[in-house]
């Protein structure tokens, strides 16, 4: 079964263009199913798997003292895997297809950051004259102005920020698709200061490789920032403004979406700005924001 899971992951990557995080999640969740099978008295295989095995797995998951959302995710991963096996005619039916998943708790309603809180955050960041402080300020400004995701931010290259154009904009790449977002004047100023001052200092005295680094946002070693690095930076910024649980990448993205909707931007335009493929993704934003 392990070989089939590897084939399934390759299929998801090459045919379905699944993101790396999605693949990691599938691998982790299906590894749990393999662990269950290895310890099950019946030692189930693809050929011997039946509804009782699936029920046993469901009960086993409940005994692991994990959240219902995690159980649902692991069952969903198994459903996708079995759907793949069914399509290849290795099994006759997808035994998870009709299973009722656990009912999730009501969705959290996001509260948009007030202008006062945003001003407080930006004022504190503006006081930091270090290369790191200037970088962090530019990052937060960009999050607020574009609704960019951490994975998109760390993939930005210098050439993707066109700050000298008549209408400054930034190109954001998501799964091979590029969208352009216009930048407000204050964001242009923040990015310009970072690029012309802070970024140069971050690569000063570094290796030849660092001097050739194309990434827009760099860490203190002169290398491209990672997603984890972005999370830690935002967390530290939130702490400094005493907004510990209110400023996160997701909160900043929801804040951008809410403000666009408040300005009268259509759902279709917001879908384009956020880089969503499907309209229902924007509908979820409206639901979580109660707009």
TrEMBL record:
GO terms for molecular function: DNA binding. InterPro entries: CB, DNA_brk_join_enz, Integrase-like_cat_sf, Integrase_catalytic, Integrase_recombinase_N, Integrase_SAM-like_N, Tyrosine_recombinase_XerCD. Residues 1-86 form the Core-binding (CB) domain. It holds the Pfam family Phage_integrase. GO terms for biological process: DNA integration; DNA recombination. Keywords: DNA integration, DNA recombination, DNA-binding. This is Tyrosine recombinase XerD. Residues 108-291 form the Tyr recombinase domain.
